[in-house]
Amino acid sequence: MGEWIGIGRRARRCYGFDEIALVPGTVSVNPTEVDTTFEIKDLKFRVPFIASAMDGVVDVNFAIAMGKLGALAVLNLDGVQSRYDDPQEAIAKIVEGEVDKTTDIVQQLYKVPVKDELVAKRVKEIKAANVPCAVSSIPQNAERFGKIAQDSGADLFVVQSTVTTARHLATKYQPLDFAKFLKSMKIPVIIGNCVTYDQGLELMEAGADGLLVGVGPGAACTTRGVLGVGVPQVTATVDLAAARDFYHRKSGRYVPIITDGGMRIGGDICKAFACGSDAVMVGSAFAKAKEAPGRGYHWGMAYPHSSLPRGTRIFVGTTGTLEQIVFGPAIIDDGSQNLMGALTTCMGTVGARTMKEFQLTEIIIAPSIQTEGKLFQQVQRVGMARK
Prior knowledge:
The protein is an alpha/beta fold.
């Protein structure tokens, strides 16, 4: 398996979103009649989009707005929301800071300790609006924050790090026992991130209720450059979907997978679902919303690392309301608005009435799909050539 890359060493060819295309079906379906429901345990969402747990994307108000649209947003409990009584002051320092000094600014702001009372307060603020509440933490803080969030009324908890495995070895500290932690939680727990079949299968066997798929594809993430680690999202999603389906046949328990990162526009999101994803986690596309706390700026979760930041601050701009981005109407031509319209229209085009049918869509390798016949768009930097 794989191609020779030198004497005695093979490497597998992997694929990203720009290298594949979806093939239309022999039967088409009315886009208004397709079912896009995402389920995780007893929770159901008609919009299978999750806003990333990044401080430039999700705050309490954004989470409420996302929930009212039938989707979900994850609040980062390791970020400024649980460190500052007025987190907007900290965010203002980040977005207004000089580019060359941003890393230092972020690192200094994130040195302020997380306050348990703010963790509980943020959860209660979201729940007061009668919408689902999802929060996240790194594995080192999962037991502490998980209990507080659960007791405060959170509906879903996410344990997230750059790469998460069921077996983490360490002698300097006590690693999180995922099996024990998952048994202690009464609400669904999503774990991430992972990109390999074996890695995902072990996390499912440990009791994960959902998995985040993706290492380093995010617009503000630099993990692939700093560490050289990552798997293109198409291949990662297909591999984890295979693990999910094998585990389902073996155990009878269905663990949804969520492609996380690397999706800028509707076409990328559609491809993620066709590759086997049950939902998608998106950051930069939602950072463009007027409701996003970053005011058009976006930075990665690993950016505040004290010695090896794996993120950067990028400017994505503010292009419209959250409702425009999710449901339209689109007022720009690059595919970054009316993401649900793109999803349902694509499902109708390939003949998929449900997400499970959509996951069976024929996929072709098509590296010219982004450029074929698009010379005028490229020259004029519009449409598919717009950055």
